[in-house]
Amino acid sequence: MESGDPFLTPVTVTTTAEEVYRRLKHAITDGDLSPGTRLVEAALAKQLGVSRTPVREALQRLSQDGLAASDGSRGLIVARLSIENIAHAYVLRETLEGLAARLAASHQRPDLLEDLSQSLRHMEHDAVDAAAFDAAHSRFHDTIAEMSGNPYLIQALKNLEGFRTRMVTLDWVARNRVRISVPEHRLIFEAIEMRDSELAEHYARLHVSKTREGLMKRLGSPALDD
Asked: In the chain, which residues fall in CATH 1.20.120.530?
């Protein structure tokens, strides 16, 4: 078989399973499906107007993402956010986000730096709009990861994306934390812009650490040490 043979056809539309996965993931990370909610294939398929097969595939991916978990029998529920797991995930996120910022400062790209600046401006402008802030916040961190130039680090951070979005939702409930975090992101941006790797890592880790400490305090538990 030659490479020019049409054994692969162009991808023109998102698969049904991918779309179901995307919708369910957003419903979980946005808080529309709360922790502990049962994820019943038949009911979800009926609500989404699809067969059970793409729902089953989507639920398997959500389980791999840590967003769905076994209910102790044969079913699945939206994964509960245990205080211990939140703390452990934040320890990992602090390390990864710090490394990404360090590499981004040393591998700075003008086009991505402009994207980073634009995301920051949107965060500053949309601090009273939860959905808009969340979108800008995700773009900010995703751009830093891309600027790092390390594909394994990028993938590791993608694996934490659902967790990060759920935590932003919880922080939004706290209201004041969103406003406090904006200047923290500006410090990260300015350090990257100055190509100061050590300072960029410091501010990135400090931002995650402060977020973790604040959230643990609100949940009634001390943050775990690194």
From this structure: 83-218
**Which amino acid does the sequence have at 195?**
R
Q: Tokens 């402009």, residue?
A: 114
Q: Which of 134, 121, 145 is nearest to 177 (CA)?
A: 134
| Domain topology for 83-218 | Four Helix Bundle (Hemerythrin (Met), subunit A) (1.20.120)
User: Which tokens in the block code for residue 211?
Assistant: 């977020």
222: phi then psi, degrees, rounded to nearest 5:
-70, 145
pLDDT tens digit string along 203-222? Answer: 999 999 988 887 787 776 55
Instruction: Give how far the C-alpha of residue 33 lies from the chain's centroid of Cα atoms, to the nearest Å.
Output: 17
Higher pLDDT, 110 or 67: 110
User: 110 in helix, strand or coil?
Assistant: helix
CB count within 10 Å of CB 114 equals 11
CATH 1.10.10.10 for domain 16-78: yes
CA distance 145 to 10: 28
In one-letter notation, the amino acid at residue 132 is: A
Structure tokens that stand for 52 in this block = 């059970």
